[in-house]
Design goal:
Blueprint: H1 4-19, H2 42-65, H3 77-94, H4 99-111, H5 117-130, H6 139-154, H7 163-180, H8 187-218
Keywords: Coiled coil
Organism: Rubus argutus (Southern blackberry)
Coiled coil: 187-226
């Protein structure tokens, strides 16, 4: 295919930048060459294990992508669903976080040392914004109103270790959820919707990268008279 070299380069970039490992931080690892009479340090062994683990996850993901047909069409619900299913398979086989699990992990690590409820809620908002999520229901404002109500009743800022105060706040949150029609039993559905949203965004990025690659290639003299192919007709398996 005329644009194969450029698309191959782009596809590899995407594999490393989040489509496969989805924002996993790749830790720089030194070259582990054998040296005579050099003792193996604990830190070296740890870094080697990290490198091998990341390598295994990456190879697992590529192995799945070489088998699964992906249609680069973010406007087709069926294509988005198929892509989401492929990403789910990759996460399960490579033992990677889903988007909801990643958010939960971020919340846990970012908020574990926060003492008060207000800072906790503000941190949740910051995490949401950084993850590119929208508060379409206005839940954050309603949660803040609930906190204001509880703190007014307590006549002091609410600390997270205040069991009585937190019980009052959680009761108010239950009212908010009820008003918004949010039920615990629907959480799997919300997680699925989040994964579909993420899949659509990644397909949009793939589409953008593929078009840019072909536009760049078309500027070259030997390809200037060649028609661009439809992105939806591309088979990613040919460029991995």
């Amino acid at each position: 295919m005329a644009f194969s070299s450029r698309l191959l380069s782009k596809s590899k970039q995407l594999c490393g930048n989040g489509v496969i490992l989805q924002q996993e931080r790749l830790i720089p690892v030194r070259h582990f060459a054998k040296e005579a009479n050099r003792p193996v340090l604990k830190g070296d062994e740890m870094l080697k294990n990290i490198f091998l683990d990341v390598k295994k996850k990456f190879e697992t993901a590529l192995g799945i992508l070489r088998k699964e047909k992906i249609t680069i069409d973010p406007n087709d619900p069926a294509a988005v669903s198929q892509y989401a299913n492929v990403m789910k398979t990759i996460r399960e086989k490579a033992d990677l976080f889903s988007e909801s699990q990643r958010i939960q992990h971020t919340i846990k690590t970012r908020t574990q040392d926060i003492p008060d409820a207000r800072t906790y809620l503000l941190t949740l908002k910051e995490i949401r914004i950084r993850r590119g999520l929208t508060d379409e229901l206005g839940a954050e404002a309603m949660m803040m109103d609930a906190l204001e109500k509880v703190e007014k009743e307590l006549k002091k800022p609410l600390l997270r270790n205040d069991k009585k105060g937190m019980a009052l706040l959680l009761a108010e949150f239950d009212k908010v959820n009820q008003k918004l029609g949010i039920r615990k039993e629907d959480l799997p559905k919300y997680e699925e919707q989040l994964e579909l949203k993420k899949a659509k965004a990644q397909l949009e990025e793939l589409e953008k990268e593929a078009l840019e690659a072909m536009e760049t290639q078309k500027k070259r003299e030997e390809f200037k008279d060649e028609a661009m192919v439809d992105v939806k007709s591309l088979d990613i398996r040919n460029f991995i």
